[in-house]
Amino acid sequence: MKVGVYSIGGKKLKEIELPKPFEAEIKPRLIKRAVVAIESKKFQPKGVKPTAGMETSAEYVGRRRKFRAGIGVGRSRLPRTKPGGGSLGRVRRVPSAVGGRRAHPPKPEKILIKKINKKEKRAALLSCIAATADKKLVKKRGYSLEGVKDLPIVVEGKFEKIKKTKEAKAVLENLGLAPELKEKRRIVVIVSGDVKSCKNLPGVNIATIESLNSSMLAPGTHAGVLTVWSENAIKKLSESYGS
């Protein structure tokens, strides 16, 4: 599969052969599993105080087979407070009572993190990368792609040397992404090194080959995010995932 390499001015310079990951099979179910596993690491364990609703003097009251018996008479007993004077106070402790404990509260020991093995995680990432070159999937996510000719979009290596945000924005507009930037749609810019020029652009995420994961390329478990690759990043991808 060949794709054009564009200058920072938006002109087509040449064509290059895309590496093997762009030819991987797109597996939506595997992508979903990988994204859920990544996102589950952000969950925070939560629970209630073990003695919540139980810090009261209320207790079960009743006698068996005696005057004013409360046991064995076909009536449920409930823990009540003892206000004094021989009377019974309000019901406490049980889930149905005001201020009582919860029946099944959340427990902090619950396992929240979903697991996925390394081979599946890698296969899911390759599926996400392949989805970035599928025009139908990308359009399905709501991108207009009016001025976009090739997918994925590949820009020359000079792009990584840009330091100012306004210059990076101008390059993206030259590549036909002005409508997406205006609507603040998610765009992932993939580079080979430390590039900060796109970090302050709304809706634009920047990533390296090392930091790339399925969650970035398939937010909400749906693949097909619009990506812009630097030529250096394509070369690095070929070295890392060439086979």
Question: Would you kindly provide a written description of the structure presented here, covering whatever features stand out?
Answer:
By secondary structure, the chain is an alpha/beta fold. The chain has 2 domains: 2-43 and 114-241, 3-Layer(aba) Sandwich (Ribosomal Protein L4, Chain: A); 46-111, no CATH class. The chain contains 7 helices and 8 strands. A 6-stranded mixed sheet has the order 2-1-5-8-6-7. A two-stranded antiparallel sheet has the order 3-4. Helix 1 packs across helix 2. The longest helix has 14 residues, at 118-131. The chain is elongated, with a radius of gyration of 30 Å.
CATH class of the largest domain: Alpha Beta
Order of helices and strands: EEHEEHHEHHEEHEH
Low-confidence stretches: none
Helix content: 25-40%
- Largest sheet, strands/sense/barrel: 6 strands, mixed
Q: Specify the CATH architecture of the largest domain.
A: 3-Layer(aba) Sandwich
What class, by secondary structure content? alpha/beta
Mean pLDDT: 88
Count of extended strands: 8
Strand order, sheet with most strands: 2-1-5-8-6-7
Gyration radius over CA: 30 Å
Beta-strand share of residues: 5-15%
Shape assignment: elongated
| CATH homologous superfamily caption of the largest domain | Ribosomal protein L4/L1
